[in-house]
Amino acid sequence: MANDVSYTPEEVAEILRISKFTVYELIKRGELMAYHVGRKVRIESADIESYKRKSKGLAPLDSPATTPSPSFAPTQGFSHNPSSDEGLVICGQDILLDILTRYLERQFPQVHFLRRYIGSIDGLMALYRGHANAVTAHLWDSDTNDYNLPYVRRLLPGHPTYIINLVYRMEGFYVAKGNPKNVTTWSDLTKPKVRFINRERGSGARVLLDEQLRILGIRSRDIVGYGEEEMTHLAVASKVARGEADVGLGIEKVAMQFVNLDFIPLHKERYDLVIRQEDLERTHFQALMSILKSPSFRNEVIGIGGYDISSMGEIMAEI
């Protein structure tokens, strides 16, 4: 594609074989660059190519391969005790965190609320190191059949925390419409003609997969594509939708954005927010808790679809 060609979101959706809604989400998350001409949104062909390269784990065409992604660089200048002139860093990849951040920005326009789109284990490590203030996790422990508590205990020693529920979500397989490879169970990933696309190490989906493989005695080397990784549920679903993989693991909400995907439900997961206990009485965190319990926020999340909010805002554990 020539560099001087630009496209509308609808045209980009056709090129990438995804929904128009997904294109706007990619733009909002900063994964796909765009600009405005008046009230119209345009995406240049070079930025489409850049997004495709990043989805494949390749370096951007105009950047050296060793350049780290800004989203994963350590955040400087933010502590776990933010004042009005500091920022508050929220880690996690779900769209409901973008909505939560928007609500906080309305109440505290003087505060810089930053979003980092990183996986569960990286988020907990960022909280431990003081690079984040609130992080999400959906890490299943097969020994206890519990979510998040065992990992928080191990990764945040000496840091008392609250684990607060956001939502419950369904994890499962993304497959092409009609499920032509008939993939319905974890064991089906070992079928010789099934190409899998994995999530990055440290993500909740990757932990769930590896725990299930351990329980079933399945060797990762017997899964074609196990070593191929993507950084988000959206990128995994997009790869399956484009026919570059036969199956991937992710949440149901993302599958709803693709017209040519089916979703095979496998495991209901708990998606929690983790904060330090000392922070809960601070103004920003009290506001956050109030937002989680507010009818307006809950109704907006319900309207998105794909989430169980029955325990939203409840403290699941004190560690």
From TrEMBL:
SUPFAM superfamilies attached to this UniProt entry: Periplasmic binding protein-like II
Protein's organism: Desulfosporosinus youngiae DSM 17734
Record's keyword annotation contains DNA-binding: yes
Molecular function per GO: DNA binding
Pfam families: HTH_17, PBP_like
Record domain Helix-turn-helix: where: 7-54
Region (Disordered): 55-78
Domain of life: Bacteria
Limits of the PBP domain: 102-293
Keyword match S-adenosyl-L-methionine: no
Compositionally biased spans, kind Low complexity: 63-75
Gene3D superfamilies recorded: Periplasmic binding protein-like II (3.40.190.10)
Descriptive protein name: DNA-binding protein, excisionase family
InterPro entries, sorted: HTH_17 (IPR041657), PBP_domain (IPR024370), SinI_DNA-bd (IPR010093)
Sorted UniProt keywords: DNA-binding
